[in-house]
Amino acid sequence: MAALDLLLSLAIPALIIVHLLVAPYTKVEESFNIQATHDILVYGTPTSDIYRKLSTQYDHFDFPGAVPRTFVGSVLLAGIGQPIITLVGFQHAQLVVRGILGLFNAAALLVFKKNVGRAFGRSTARWYALLQLCQFHVLFYASRTLPNMFAFGFTTLAFSQLMTNPDEKPPVYRYKLAIAYLTMATAIFRSELAILLVTVTLYGLARSHISLGRIIPTFIVFFITSLLLTIPIDSYFWQKPLWPELWGFYYNAILGSSSDWGVSPWHYYFTSAIPKILTNPLSTSVLIPYALWNTGTKSQAQQLVVPSLLFVAIYSLQPHKEARFIFYIAPPLTAAAALGANYIFTRRTKSVLFLSASVVILGSVLVSFAISTAMLVISSLNYPGGEALLELRNLVSSPSSLDLQTVTIHTDVLSCMTGVTLFGQHPSLPNDSRSASEITFNYDKTEDESILRSPAFWEKFDYVLAEDPSKVLGPWETVGVVEGFAGIEIVRPSTSLKYDIESGQDRIFGRGALVRRVKDSTRALIGGWWVGPKMEPKIHILRKMREGEARRAVTE
């Protein structure tokens, strides 16, 4: 069984890296940290004329976001990633820094799995690993540079210290360590984790696991340590006295401005987000309730479930809700489900009921893994901006392209929201001698509608990435289209697929082209049927038509 334990442990980081490689691009929610990491790697940390250098080189001065975010995570990614990037090349830098974050979260999950085995037994740890490996969201987001995922590793490590068997209390040092992790995650990365810090503390006090006299000094020490880390670093990069998470707390909780991004019903986390995060429908409907009800697992399950769900219940008072805001509870709730699964499976020889339940649970694991795999494939189709930028750079750099030494490109809002990053724009360092003979690319991200309506604005560009070509003024040719996911479709044999040549839909680039080939091959094999991703044009790659080309286009 040692080989099985090793296989399950290795599968956690392996699948996180697989998810990274299948979906290597980022979305707008991840942009601050990925852009900040790029700027630190490329421009360093100036020690003289600091404001001028930062304000003219760093992306966050042009795109600061709704609230300032901490640079601590980006500094760590850049610092750890720099020697690796030197070895593999800057063209792989985005994968490297995201991989570092993913492996940090994988390490936290492995520590959690180990402590599940210590507290509840190896067989429960195996069930925990199986259930965790079937959860799409944790594996997919583990390498994404969201503030939530920088905090995720710390909260997972905190929960790993709180698990005990029914016959013991957590050693004081373990509770102190959990408080330390939660304090750092709260003060540096996500202020709302103060709620989780409170619920964990209240549960420990209620169960007489710890006293306030033991907790408060630990909290104070690590709170001050966190402030001494985040305030100097962030005040330097933002060039003003700043504690980012205090600003974020004021913006979200005091002003209530997060509601501007949407409002969800109070029950959203319980009825929608948690079932989605855990993926396996039996986890929420059967395994966790059974573990809480069954005398043999009740005490262990409570220490995992009660603080987690209390955190979610309190946090549900915040009108704006997103599943990623509660990813932290996935490991403890999964461990609670593993308690129920293990209890049932170990008794499979005792009765037909336990045997049948065991078969159903095993089947649910396979089904959940298939669902997670399908979700990964579908999610990888949601980054047309990143694909379009890569295809455009390859197109311009190809021998058959026009002989241009400098190419100026405009990227629209949708492109920037779905994968265009500084790493993609500049896949080599400015002072890299290996890129001296390459084409120089200049980019523009203007969003102001009044400027975009001016014909003169568009004259300076050679290429444009645009969601709507009609808004790009002047003579332009569609050289290709990148499609994105638009739902699941059922195509019948009688359906004839025709593509609009004029719009460029006959020149599909990126994964849309792969989906189209698979679709055509599948229909040919099974009599014209197709059930799968529906793709639709998202980003059009436009090339400016030169004077002679424009005249010919008009006469034609």
What shape does the CA trace take? globular
| Overall helicity | 55-70%
Low-confidence stretches: none
> How far apart are the first and last residues' alpha carbons, in Å?
73 Å
**Helix and strand pattern:** HHHHHHHHHHHHHHHHHHEHHEHHEEEHEH
Number of strands: 6
Alpha-beta classification: alpha/beta
Sheet with most strands = 6 strands, mixed
| Radius of gyration of CA atoms, rounded to a whole number | 26 Å
Average pLDDT for all residues: 91
| Tally of helical runs | 24
Percentage of β-strand residues: 5-15%
Summarize the structure.
The protein is an alpha/beta fold.
Structure description:
- The protein is of the alpha/beta class.
- It is 59% helix and 9% strand.
- It contains 24 helices and six strands.
- It has helices spanning 2-22, 31-43, 50-57, 72-88, 93-120, 122-133, 136-141, 147-160, 172-189, 193-206, 212-238, 244-254, 268-278, 281-293, 298-315, 330-345, 352-379, 384-397, 413-417, 422-425, 449-452, 455-458, 511-525, 547-555, and strands at 406-411, 440-444, 463-466, 476-491, 508-509, 530-544.
- A six-stranded mixed sheet has the order 2-1-3-6-4-5.
- Helix 2 (31-43) packs across helix 4, helix 5 (93-120) packs antiparallel against helix 6 and helix 14 (281-293) crosses helix 15.
- The protein is globular and about 85 Å long.
- The model has no long low-confidence stretch (mean pLDDT 91).
